[in-house]
C-alpha cells in the first residue's frame, strides 16, 4: 500500500469505505504495512456511506401494554390471502386485539373490503357489552383500513385512527405477532391429524380460543380473565381434530337408527354452550353439547365432495335459543369467532337461509290450519280438553318440524290444540297488533316449534307448540339495539347459600312462565303472520308490542322489566352483582332474590314471607313455585336438616 496521508478518513475512502474501526484494528494488529494513522476525528460522518449503507433505526422494545385500561388502544391486522378457500368462502382472517387485556377477536373474510363491516361489528359489540367504545384503533397502511366509509365511522364514534408508517409493520407488531402465532398454532393443529387445509379457519378459530385462555408474556395475565373478569375453566377443552361421537336427538332418528354419529371436533361454538364438529364427508357443521371425545383417535378422513358449509344445531330448546340470549354465559360469551358467512338459525332441520333466499312465508301456505283475525285465531280448532286424553300415551312418531308435518301427522288434533293454546296466550298477553305494513319497512319471519313433554317414565303428558321469531332476520339499529342482559354469577349464588346456611334461612325456587313475553318493546318490529294464520289481507302483519322468543333483544327487555318490578317491590340490586337483589324488612331481617333469566332463587326467613313474595310477583307475571331449591346454575343443593343445605357440584 502506498502511503499518502495519515488521516483515518483518507484510508476509509481508499479502502472502499471500510468501517474505520476495522481499519484501526488492522493497523493495531500489524496485519499490513505502509499505513500510518494519526489521531483525528474518528466520528466523522461519511455522506457516501450514509447514502449507500443506510439501514433502519432500531424499534424500541415493548415489554408491556401501552394502555392503562380496556379498549383504550386496539390493534388490528389482516392475514392472507390463504392458498385454500374455506367451505364458507373465506380467504383472509382479521385479528382485533385489545392492548390492555391482549384479548383477541378473529373474523374471517372473503375479501378485504369486508374490514369496515367487521370493525363496526366489533365496536357495536364493545358498546353493548361494556358501555364504551375503543378510543384508538391502530392498523397498517392498507387500503382496507383507509376507506372513506371507515373514516366516517371513526369520526361519528369519536375514535382516533392510527396508521403505521409506510413499510413499517413493526409499528403494528402486536397484531403482526398475533397473526403469526395463530398461523403457527393452526399449522401444528392441522399437521397433528393431517386434516384437509380447507379447514384452516376452524384451526385458526380454535387457536385463538386457546390463546385467549393462556397467560401472555406482555401482561402476565390471561386475556380471557381480563376481558370477562372471571377465571377460565379449561375442563371442557379437547384436542383439535380428534374424533368424537355426537348424540342424535330422538326427533332426528327412528327407534332402530343409531343414537350416535362419529364426527371430527373442530372447535367451540361462539354463540352457545356447545362444541363445533364437522362431518368430513359432507362438510356439515354440527353444534352439540352431548359429545363423547376420542382424544387420541384420528378423524375419519373421507373425500369431501360438497363445498358448501351447512350448519346444524342439535341442542335447540323450544323455549330458549342460546344464540339469541347474550345474557347466557357460554364458554366464549361474546366472541364473534369463525363466522365465515354462516347464518344464525332456529330450526336445524331447515339448514341455513340467506337474505336473498328467504321467502315471505317460511311454511307451506296450503297448511290446513287457517287463522284470520285475533278473535278467529282459534276458530275450527279442537278444545284444550284434547290434552286430557294423552296422559299415558307413548309416541313413536317423530316430532314435526313444520306446521305442514304437524297437520299431516296422526296427532294433528293434539298439535292443533297446542297451537290454539299458544295463540290464546299471545292474544291475552297483547304480544302484537294486526296492522298494515308501513311503507319502507320489512318484516321478520317466525315459525312453529313442536315438542312433546314427557314425565320421568317417558309418557307423553303434554303437546307444546311454541311460536318463535326468526331473530337472525333482524337488522341492527332498525329492529334492535341493546341485547345484553346480565345473569347472577355462580360465586354470588354460592355466597348467598352460605349466608342462608349461617342464618338458617329458607331457600326457594321460582320459575317465571313465558318470561320473555313480558318484556316491552321500544323498537318498531313487524313480524309476518304465524304460519297457518290468515289475517284476511296479505298486507296485514303483526306489529310486536312485547317480547317474543327468538328476538335479539328478548332477554334484554325481559331483564329490564323484571328489574323494574323487583325495585317496585322494595328489592335493591347489589353493586357487585346486579342480579342479586336484597330487601330489608320491617323487623330488620333481610330477604334476597337471585335472578338467572327466568329462574329466581328466593332466600327469606319464613314461609309466610315467601308466600307474600310469590303473591306480589304473581301480580305482574305468571310464576310457579318450585318449592325448596334443588339445583341451580349447575349445582345440586341437597337439604340435610331443616334450613341446612349442602352443595354437590355440577349435575350435568
Protein model, in words:
By secondary structure, this protein is of the alpha+beta class. It has helices at residues 8-14, 20-28, 47-52, 115-130, 148-157, 173-193, 200-212, 223-228, 403-408, 412-429, 490-503, 554-568, 607-618, and strands at residues 73-79, 92-98, 104-109, 136-139, 160-163, 243-247, 260-268, 275-279, 284-288, 291-294, 310-313, 432-436, 446-454, 460-469, 506-512, 526-527, 540-544, 572-573, 580-584, 590-596, 599-604, 623-628, 631-632, 635-639, 645-650. It has 5 domains: 8-52, no CATH class; 73-228, Nucleotidyltransferase, domain 5, CATH 3.30.420; 243-348, no CATH class; 374-484 and 522-544, no CATH class; 490-514 and 552-650, 2-Layer Sandwich (Alpha-Beta Plaits), CATH 3.30.70. It contains 13 helices and 25 strands. A hairpin with a 6-residue loop joins strand 7 (260-268) and strand 8. Helix 6 packs across helix 7 (200-212). The radius of gyration is 32 Å and the shape is elongated. It starts with 7 loop residues before the first helix and ends with a strand.
Q: How is the secondary structure organized here?
A:
Layout: H1 8-14, H2 20-28, H3 47-52, E1 73-79, E2 92-98, E3 104-109, H4 115-130, E4 136-139, H5 148-157, E5 160-163, H6 173-193, H7 200-212, H8 223-228, E6 243-247, E7 260-268, E8 275-279, E9 284-288, E10 291-294, E11 310-313, H9 403-408, H10 412-429, E12 432-436, E13 446-454, E14 460-469, H11 490-503, E15 506-512, E16 526-527, E17 540-544, H12 554-568, E18 572-573, E19 580-584, E20 590-596, E21 599-604, H13 607-618, E22 623-628, E23 631-632, E24 635-639, E25 645-650
Parallel strand pairs: 1-4, 4-5, 9-11
Antiparallel strand pairs: 1-2, 2-3, 6-7, 6-10, 7-8, 8-9, 12-17, 13-14, 15-21, 15-22, 16-17, 18-19, 19-20, 20-21, 23-24, 24-25
Helix pairs in contact: 6-7
Amino acid at each position: 500500500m502506498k502511503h499518502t496521508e495519515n488521516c483515518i478518513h483518507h484510508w476509509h475512502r481508499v479502502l472502499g469505505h471500510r468501517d474505520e474501526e476495522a481499519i484501526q484494528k488492522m493497523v493495531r494488529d500489524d496485519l499490513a504495512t505502509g499505513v500510518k494513522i494519526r489521531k483525528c476525528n474518528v466520528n466523522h460522518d461519511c455522506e457516501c456511506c450514509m447514502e449507500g449503507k443506510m439501514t433502519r433505526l432500531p424499534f424500541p422494545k415493548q415489554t408491556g401494554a401501552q394502555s392503562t385500561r380496556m379498549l383504550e388502544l386496539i390493534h388490528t391486522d389482516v392475514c392472507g390471502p390463504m392458498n385454500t378457500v374455506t367451505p364458507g368462502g373465506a380467504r383472509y382472517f382479521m385479528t382485533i386485539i385489545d392492548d390492555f387485556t391482549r384479548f383477541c377477536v378473529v373474523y374471517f373474510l372473503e375479501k378485504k373490503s369486508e374490514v369496515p363491516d367487521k370493525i363496526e361489528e366489533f365496536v357495536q359489540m364493545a358498546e353493548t357489552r361494556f358501555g364504551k367504545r375503543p378510543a384508538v384503533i391502530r392498523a397498517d397502511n392498507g387500503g382496507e383500513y383507509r376507506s372513506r366509509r371507515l373514516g366516517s365511522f371513526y369520526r361519528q364514534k369519536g375514535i382516533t385512527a392510527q396508521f403505521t408508517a409506510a413499510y413499517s409493520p413493526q409499528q403494528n407488531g402486536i397484531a403482526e405477532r398475533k397473526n403469526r402465532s395463530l398461523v403457527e398454532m393452526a399449522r401444528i393443529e392441522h399437521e397433528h391429524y393431517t386434516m384437509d387445509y380447507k379447514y384452516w379457519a376452524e384451526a385458526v378459530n380454535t387457536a385463538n380460543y386457546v390463546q385467549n385462555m393462556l397467560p401472555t408474556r406482555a401482561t402476565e395475565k390471561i386475556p380471557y380473565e381480563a376481558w370477562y373478569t372471571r377465571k377460565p375453566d379449561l375442563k371442557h377443552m379437547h384436542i383439535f381434530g380428534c374424533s368424537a361421537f355426537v348424540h342424535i336427538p330422538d326427533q332426528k332418528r327412528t327407534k332402530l337408527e343409531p343414537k350416535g354419529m362419529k364426527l371430527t371436533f373442530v372447535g367451540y361454538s361462539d354463540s352457545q354452550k356447545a362444541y363445533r364438529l364437522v362431518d368430513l364427508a359432507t362438510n356439515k357443521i354440527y353444534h352439540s353439547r352431548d359429545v363423547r371425545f376420542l382424544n387420541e383417535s384420528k378423524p375419519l378422513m373421507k373425500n369431501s365432495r360438497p363445498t358448501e358449509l351447512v350448519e346444524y344445531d342439535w341442542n335447540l330448546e323450544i323455549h330458549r335459543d342460546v344464540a339469541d340470549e347474550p345474557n347466557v354465559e357460554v364458554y366464549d360469551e361474546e366472541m364473534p369467532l369463525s363466522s365465515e358467512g354462516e347464518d344464525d338459525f332456529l330450526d336445524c332441520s331447515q339448514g341455513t337461509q340467506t337474505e336473498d333466499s328467504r321467502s315471505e312465508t317460511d311454511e307451506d301456505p296450503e297448511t290446513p290450519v287457517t287463522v284470520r283475525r285475533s278473535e278467529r285465531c282459534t276458530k275450527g280448532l279442537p278444545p284444550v280438553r284434547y290434552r286430557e286424553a294423552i296422559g299415558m300415551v307413548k309416541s313413536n312418531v317423530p316430532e314435526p318440524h313444520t306446521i305442514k308435518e304437524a297437520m299431516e301427522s296422526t296427532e294433528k288434533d293434539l298439535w292443533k290444540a297446542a297451537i290454539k293454546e299458544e295463540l290464546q296466550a299471545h292474544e291475552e298477553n297483547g304480544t302484537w297488533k294486526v296492522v298494515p305494513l308501513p311503507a319502507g319497512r320489512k318484516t321478520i319471519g317466525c315459525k312453529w316449534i313442536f315438542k312433546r313433554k314427557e314425565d320421568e317414565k317417558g309418557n307423553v303428558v303434554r303437546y307444546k307448540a311454541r311460536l318463535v321469531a326468526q331473530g337472525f332476520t333482524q337488522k341492527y339499529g332498525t329492529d334492535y339495539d341493546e341485547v345484553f342482559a346480565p345473569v347472577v354469577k355462580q360465586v354470588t349464588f354460592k355466597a348467598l347459600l352460605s349466608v342462608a346456611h349461617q342464618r338458617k334461612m329458607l331457600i326457594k325456587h321460582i320459575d317465571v312462565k313465558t318470561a320473555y313475553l313480558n318484556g316491552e318493546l321500544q323498537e318498531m318490529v313487524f313480524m309476518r303472520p304465524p304460519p297457518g294464520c290468515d289475517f284476511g289481507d296479505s298486507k296485514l302483519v303483526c306489529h310486536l308490542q312485547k317480547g317474543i322468543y327468538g328476538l335479539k333483544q328478548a332477554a334484554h327487555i325481559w331483564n329490564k322489566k323484571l328489574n323494574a318490578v323487583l325495585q317496585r317491590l322494595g328489592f335493591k340490586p347489589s353493586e357487585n352483582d346486579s342480579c342479586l337483589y336484597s330487601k330489608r324488612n320491617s323487623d330488620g331481617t333481610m330477604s334476597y332474590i337471585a335472578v338467572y333469566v327466568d329462574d329466581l332463587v328466593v332466600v327469606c326467613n319464613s314461609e309466610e314471607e315467601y308466600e307474600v313474595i310469590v303473591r306480589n310477583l304473581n301480580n305482574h307475571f305468571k310464576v310457579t313455585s318450585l318449592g325448596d331449591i334443588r339445583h341451580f346454575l349447575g349445582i345440586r343443593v341437597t337439604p340435610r336438616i331443616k334450613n341446612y343445605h349442602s352443595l354437590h357440584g355440577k349435575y350435568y
